[in-house]
Amino acid sequence: MLLTKDQLKDRLRIREIAPAYTFFGDESYLRDAAVRYITDLSFGDGDFRDFNETEFSLDNPENLKAALAAAEQLPMMASRRVIRITDVRVAVTANRDTLKEDFLEAITAYLERPAETSVLIFVADELNGNRKLGKLLKEKTTCVDFSRLDEDDLRKWAADRFKERHAIIEPEVVDQVIELAGNDLHRLANEIEKLSAASLPEGRITADLVTSLVPYTREFSNFLLADELVAGRKLNALRMLKKMLDDGADPLAMLGMLAWNYRRLLIAHGMLAQGEPRHRVEQLTRVRGSALAFAGRAGTGTLAGAIDKIARADIAIKTSAGGSGPAGARLQLEMLVCELSLI
What we know:
This protein has 17 helices and eight strands. It is α/β, with parallel strands linked by helices and about 350 residues long. It folds into three domains: about 1-145, P-loop containing nucleotide triphosphate hydrolases (Rossmann fold); about 150-215, Helicase, Ruva Protein, domain 3 (Orthogonal Bundle), CATH 1.10.8.60; about 220-340, Zinc Finger, Delta Prime, domain 3, CATH 1.20.272.10. The strands form two sheets. It has a six-stranded parallel beta sheet with strand order 1-6-2-5-4-3, sandwiched between helices. It has a two-stranded parallel ribbon with strand order 7-8. Strand 3, helix 4 (about 65-70) and strand 4 form a beta-alpha-beta unit. The protein starts with a strand and ends with a helix. The model has no long low-confidence stretch (mean pLDDT about 90).
């Protein structure tokens, strides 16, 4: 049974605990938080958790047998057992699976009659719903997709975290934190903790404090820079480029990431042109939202031309064309950003 995150929250609020869960999706922070919350909720004050809380990693697929056997056992001096099965992967191809189809019969048998005194939680890093095991888990467990938060939900999540820490922060400064830290909640949570502590005793978080303490993430900032470029927002892209370089980003590494991003766009364009479903294109290329829309409408020549511009900038930096050292590299990147934002 597939639930939304909000539906799961509503059920847990009334202490409705299912016998089996499957949690998957890119947002591992919320996924892992849900696992911890259900585990805590499953035990009472007098329960012996140490005897009844176990975790099995499918980095060794054979651990599944031990996990199902533990789930069948009665709890010891507690009302429930909690069994977590981690590192679960049901991939596009079987050779990358950690949850093997050899165990399909055993998993099916357990989920048809799950133990009433156990809570079994599959924590999946990848869950392909077209495969037999993926379909089984989605149908026979309480299944929740912890996808990345959209812009509005991300802003609300961050604002709520600041409020919980009694920090005073304006909405535009929250946006600044998100822009710098990215949408990975693990890192964003760390930055919120750091800023909240640094703002004491007054508790007010200013734009200057954020600028001084929060650097751009390397990988995410390149994704974000590419998003600004495909949207044609030149000023935003130049401002982002300046911050990244000021924070010590390596120009050649940035070019490599930009080239990789535009190659993904080119691959997505080709897949869409061949009639591949959008969800499969997103899954295989990690191109989503407005970037996927851009890939769909851009011509092959346009995207190939962008990659060529990046390659020429790479050569210019390596040969010191237009100036040597950091100043020359910065100039080449600024020129490249202006050219790419006009595509």
